[in-house]
């Protein structure tokens, strides 16, 4: 019955008309949950449990185990099987399992205190909260522990524990713990000495620790897509280069710790590694300021490094027309969504890179899946392909701009993806939950390749427009400028050095969206 009801819910969801942007995302999310194999398995399990009523075999199995053990102990001889059975039945874990079964069978879930447990709780209550503990950790020689330290009160204190490191997996040390001794060696106030000593240790390492008793915070569910490439090996500000996390533009990072305002702990979901990344505050500060000089104070990974002195050199918007386009983009918070069809496919690129050819070919091949808008004729001062003004079909040809985005909604309402080739500045308006765009940058190839492609088109008689060498150079330069200014909007970059190859790649990527989960801006979901 549950499976049938699940299928009915799926049919009802597919039959719902498209509504507002928020409702559309809710439907996509709910559809993904209902299609999940986990939900299907739970429905099947629930269906089976309703049909098959489970009952306990008995309520006195511990008595039965006791009787069996008495019989085995009284038996004579060296029976190997009897000895093995005795060992199994006397195992504490096995007896706890049987006892739990009996408690569940009689629905007795209250814990009855035993003399032993009373002594433990009594002795525990007498232990002072600042008691010193002896901890044994396991370590291989040369293996980094994933721990950084600071000096507090003349003693090394754990400053951070990297998510996924050897220490984090063992769960014996916590942030704020004071390390007093390592294998009997008293620790002073030099974290570098402690790092070197721990680096050379192997096997079981005994630490004398003054615990902090701080509860570790729950890891935040924050996922970020970086708009820059990062290599900790070349970063002079990172506390410890060995624990830095490298990533590329467009990777997805799961931030697991944001306690440090400058350095976050994150996992790169593309490669699976965990380490430190610069926080958004630090990276924006680094991009907005210019490093000037250094001194010799501060502590990095147990060593002393320089504090930064920087010359403030902010962009002046009144004197820099590029500032609005060259925004300080560092990270974009994203959320994982099930497969769905994007409302719009936005093709960005310089004039002459083939955007319109790619758009028209997609629409001709699959007119039931793709559509486009009706642009106004450009004014004399507007450049072809760079200043379209979208209007409703009713308003087309009247000379009025009309409502700018009505044509997009007309295409989307027919459950087709609307393909747009627009000025890059339009991305600020388009990249919202209302339009849910997949933005593809069509990049110009090298100048020699572009020259050869244009010659081939002219020789084949496909165009009568002859481009000069200066025109081709302008296309390459404009393509590079658009990439620099707007790359944080791009979901995909395709270098059009061969039109057929570029079309195949574009079509494959767009169709892939309907088959695999997608990472979208979190503002589209919440």
UniProtKB/TrEMBL annotation:
Residue ranges of every copy of the PDZ domain listed in the record: 134-213
Residue limits of the L27 domain?
A: 54-112
- Where is each Guanylate kinase-like domain found? 342-511
Matching Pfam families, A to Z? Guanylate_kin, L27, PDZ, SH3_2
Keywords attached to this entry: SH3 domain
Query: Which Gene3D superfamilies does this entry report, sorted A to Z?
Result: 2.30.42.10, L27 domain (1.10.287.650), P-loop containing nucleotide triphosphate hydrolases (3.40.50.300), SH3 Domains (2.30.30.40)
**Keyword Ribonucleoprotein in record:** no
Q: Which residues form the SH3 domain?
A: 219-287
Assigned protein family: Belongs to the MAGUK family.
**PANTHER family, per database record:** MEMBRANE-ASSOCIATED GUANYLATE KINASE MAGUK
Name this polypeptide is given? Protein associated with LIN7 2, MAGUK p55 family member a
Q: Give the organism the record lists.
A: Gadus morhua
């Amino acid at each position: 019955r549950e499976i049938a009801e699940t299928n009915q819910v799926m049919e009802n969801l597919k039959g719902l008309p498209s509504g507002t942007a928020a409702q559309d995302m809710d439907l996509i999310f709910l559809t993904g949950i209902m299609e999940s194999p986990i939900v299907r398995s739970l429905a099947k399990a629930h269906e089976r449990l309703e049909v098959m009523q489970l009952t306990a075999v008995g309520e006195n199995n511990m008595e039965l185990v006791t009787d069996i053990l008495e019989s085995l102990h009284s038996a004579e001889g060296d029976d190997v099987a009897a000895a093995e059975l005795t060992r199994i039945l006397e195992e504490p874990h096995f007896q706890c399992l049987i006892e739990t079964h009996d408690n569940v069978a009689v629905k007795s879930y209250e814990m009855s205190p035993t003399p032993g447990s009373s002594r433990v709780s009594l002795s525990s209550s007498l232990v002072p909260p600042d008691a010193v503990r002896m901890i044994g950790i396991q370590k291989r020689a040369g293996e980094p522990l994933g721990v950084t330290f600071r000096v507090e009160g003349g003693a090394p204190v754990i400053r951070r524990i990297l998510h996924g490191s050897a220490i984090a997996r063992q769960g014996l040390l916590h942030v704020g713990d004071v390390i007093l001794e390592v294998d009997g060696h008293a620790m002073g106030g030099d974290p570098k000495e402690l790092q070197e000593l721990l680096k050379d240790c192997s096997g079981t390492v005994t630490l004398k620790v003054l615990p902090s008793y701080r509860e570790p915070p729950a890891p935040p569910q924050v996922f970020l897509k970086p708009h820059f490439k990062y290599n900790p090996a070349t970063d002079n500000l990172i506390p410890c280069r060995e624990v830095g996390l490298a990533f590329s533009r467009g990777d997805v990072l799961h931030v697991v710790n944001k306690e440090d305002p400058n350095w976050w702990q994150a996992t790169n979901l593309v490669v699976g590694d965990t380490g430190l990344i610069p926080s958004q505050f630090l990276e924006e500060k680094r991009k907005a300021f210019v490093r000037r000089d250094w001194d010799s104070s501060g502590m990095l990974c147990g060593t002393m490094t320089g504090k930064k002195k920087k010359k403030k050199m902010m962009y002046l918007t009144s004197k820099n027309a590029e500032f609005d386009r060259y925004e300080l983009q560092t990270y974009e918070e994203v959320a994982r969504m099930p497969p769905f069809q994007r409302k719009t496919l936005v093709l960005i690129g310089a004039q002459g890179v083939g955007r319109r050819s790619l758009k028209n070919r997609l629409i001709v091949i699959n007119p039931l899946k793709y559509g486009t808008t009706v642009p106004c004729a450009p004014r004399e001062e507007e450049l072809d392909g760079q200043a379209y003004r979208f209007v409703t079909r009713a308003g087309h040809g009247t000379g009025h701009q009309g409502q700018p985005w009505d044509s997009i909604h007309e295409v989307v309402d027919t459950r087709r993806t609307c393909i747009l080739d627009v000025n890059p500045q339009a991305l600020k308006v388009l990249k919202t939950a209302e339009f849910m765009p997949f933005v593809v940058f069509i990049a110009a190839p090298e100048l020699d390749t572009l020259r050869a492609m244009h010659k081939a088109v002219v020789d084949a008689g496909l165009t009568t427009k002859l481009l000069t060498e200066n025109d081709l150079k302008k296309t390459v330069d404009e393509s590079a400028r658009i990439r620099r200014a707007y790359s944080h909007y791009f979901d995909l970059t395709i270098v059009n050095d061969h039109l057929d190859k570029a079309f195949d790649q574009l079509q494959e990527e767009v169709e892939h969206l309907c088959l695999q989960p997608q990472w979208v801006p979190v503002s589209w979901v919440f």
